């Protein structure tokens, strides 16, 4: 993002986590409240990034392993004669999807709880910051009108 | 930077943006009107893309390195006609793909790779809010509520109807916005939902919540004060059910599908109570029809999304209990036949309704059976697409077979058959 910009910038989705990274703008006269908001957002972003990158990588890895083990059981290789990657059909994959979901169920419950708490906190802080800014702007207008 | 280079840059950008605006501005409707829509859009592009170009050039002035990267791509044609701009795009795309440039090249994927400023652009705001509130889904919800209103056995009142439709629409916008607010990281990970406004950072969560409040509160107030308190209460309950029950439940248990079906069944009930002011059997029957419809519709859709649901952590029947998924869809197809037969018993429609609706109900049941037996992608898609036209057609047939209010009053007042006939002949 350009150096003179006064707003946050959001980027393309990350390869591993599919989340879009945000570069936060730090204003020179950042108040304590605004700093808390920015830090909360940075922390949430980092935590989300860690979770999803790890989770998606585990998914891909386990999927590969599952396909490999199934193909081996059937006596096939990972790549057939034409060099194409051999895949299993949807029904066979369904078993893997079911297993993966049940295995990660508790992890998701924990993550959901965290995410909801973080989301509410960040939005509440945003509301507070917006309110403070609005009051400041109104006060400034009153002063300039009086002058 | 030389003037000649600037010229080429301008022309390249113009070509790219013509292509981009043409392709990103059009919604994905699979109908023949898209062609006409495209032709109409071409006229608009000339105004839009000049403004866009102005904005992009202002940004580019600062991004000097972008300018230098464009130079290997500059041997580009000067004409701005459709076909040549498409060719340019293909040339540039192949050239740009090798380098990881920040060029605003046309095509959604390239636009996506750019870093974007997180500032609300006022001219984009209506489109963003439309996507936030899932405007198409809202329109469908409002039409089911109007169907409920139309089926109620009372004389039609236009103001009441408009208030109900508007109130239901606003409530639905609010519920959808809150749903997207809750689901940002999950939506980013699923192909179907990764282009939502909150995921792309086009709007802040605070703004989404404020929008939801500013839609929901007037919507419910309109329903409670302008229509009746029962409809308002149902609207508020539906928002609560969708945002606080269905959305979190999606990640906790497969029961979410049943809760979601209730959410879908409530709007026609709201339409009915708005017209009559009371919750009678007719309302529940309409609600029941929509409740049963949700299962073949959703279960068929979720069958193709099993991988994404599994990775995203969504507890759906299609992933964890596939047999149950198909069974439930089939059972509810049969239930639709049953409910259509009950309609004339409750005096909502004449007996022609179950007869006329039997073919379409049998067809969806047949597709439901095929889905149950074959359990593959093609049968699930067939069932899903059938459900899309099945519901509007069923509601339309129901409306045309609606028992006239006058007829019912006659049958209630008079006992003698011939007397009835005389009256019926007199009335138009």
From TrEMBL, chain A:
InterPro entries attached to this UniProt entry: COA8
Entry keyword set: Membrane, Mitochondrion, Mitochondrion inner membrane, Transit peptide
One family name in Pfam for this protein: COA8
Localization: Mitochondrion inner membrane
Biological processes annotated in GO: intrinsic apoptotic signaling pathway
Membrane topology annotation: Peripheral membrane protein
Primary residence: mitochondrion
One cellular component term from this protein's GO annotations in UniProt: mitochondrial inner membrane
Entry's family note: Belongs to the COA8 family.
Name this protein carries in UniProt: APOP1 protein
UniProt source species: Poecile atricapillus
């Amino acid at each position: 993002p350009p150096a003179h910009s006064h707003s946050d910038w959001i980027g393309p989705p990350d390869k591993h986590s599919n989340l879009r990274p945000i570069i936060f703008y730090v204003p020179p006269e950042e108040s304590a409240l605004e700093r808390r908001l920015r830090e909360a957002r940075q922390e949430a972003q980092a935590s989300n990034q860690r979770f999803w990158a790890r989770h998606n990588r585990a998914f891909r890895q386990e999927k590969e392993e599952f396909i490999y083990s199934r193909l081996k059981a059937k006596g096939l290789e990972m790549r057939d004669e034409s060099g194409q990657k051999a895949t299993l059909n949807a029904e066979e994959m369904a078993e893997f999807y079911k297993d993966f979901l049940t295995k990660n169920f508790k992890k998701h419950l924990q993550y959901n709880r965290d995410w909801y708490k973080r989301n509410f906190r960040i939005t509440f802080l945003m509301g507070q910051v917006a309110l403070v800014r609005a009051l400041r702007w109104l006060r400034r207008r009153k002063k300039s009108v009086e002058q | 930077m030389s003037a000649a280079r600037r010229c080429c840059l301008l022309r390249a950008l113009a070509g790219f943006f013509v292509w981009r605006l043409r392709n990103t501005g059009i919604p994905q409707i699979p109908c023949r009107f898209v062609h006409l829509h495209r032709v109409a859009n071409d006229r608009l592009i000339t105004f839009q893309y000049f403004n866009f170009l102005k904005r992009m050039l202002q940004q580019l002035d600062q991004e000097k390195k972008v300018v230098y990267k464009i130079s290997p791509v500059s041997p580009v044609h000067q004409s701005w006609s459709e076909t040549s701009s498409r060719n340019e795009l293909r040339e540039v795309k192949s050239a740009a793909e090798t380098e990881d440039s920040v060029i605003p090249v046309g095509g959604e994927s390239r636009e996506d790779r750019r870093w974007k400023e997180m500032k609300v652009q006022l001219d984009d705001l209506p489109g963003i809010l439309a996507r936030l509130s899932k405007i198409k889904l809202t329109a469908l919800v409002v039409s089911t509520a109007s169907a409920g209103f139309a089926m109620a056995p009372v004389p039609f009142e236009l103001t009441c109807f408009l208030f109900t439709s508007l109130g239901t629409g606003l409530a639905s916008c609010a519920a959808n916005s809150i749903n997207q607010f809750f689901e940002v990281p999950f939506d980013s990970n699923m192909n179907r939902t990764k282009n939502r406004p909150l995921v792309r950072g086009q709007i802040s969560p605070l703004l989404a919540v404020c929008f939801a409040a500013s839609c929901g509160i007037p919507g419910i107030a309109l329903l409670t004060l302008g229509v009746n308190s029962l409809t308002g209460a149902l609207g508020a309950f539906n928002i609560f059910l969708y945002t606080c029950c269905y959305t979190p439940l999606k990640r906790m248990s497969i029961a979410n599908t049943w809760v979601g079906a209730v959410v879908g069944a409530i709007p026609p009930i709201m339409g009915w109570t708005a017209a009559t002011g009371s919750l009678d059997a007719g309302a529940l029957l309409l609600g029941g029809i929509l409740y049963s419809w949700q299962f073949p519709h959703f279960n068929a859709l979720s069958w193709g999304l099993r991988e994404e649901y599994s990775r995203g952590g969504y507890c759906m029947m299609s992933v964890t209990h596939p047999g149950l998924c198909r069974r439930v869809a089939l059972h509810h197809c049969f239930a639709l036949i049953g409910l259509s037969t009950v309609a004339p018993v409750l005096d909502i429609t004449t007996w022609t309704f179950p007869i006329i609706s039997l073919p379409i109900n049998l067809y969806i049941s047949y597709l439901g059976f095929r889905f149950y037996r074959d359990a593959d992608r093609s049968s699930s898609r067939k069932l899903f697409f059938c459900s899309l036209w099945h519901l509007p057609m069923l509601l339309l047939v129901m409306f045309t077979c609606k028992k006239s209010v006058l007829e019912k009053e006659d049958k209630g007042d008079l006992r003698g058959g011939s007397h009835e006939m005389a009256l019926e002949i007199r009335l138009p």
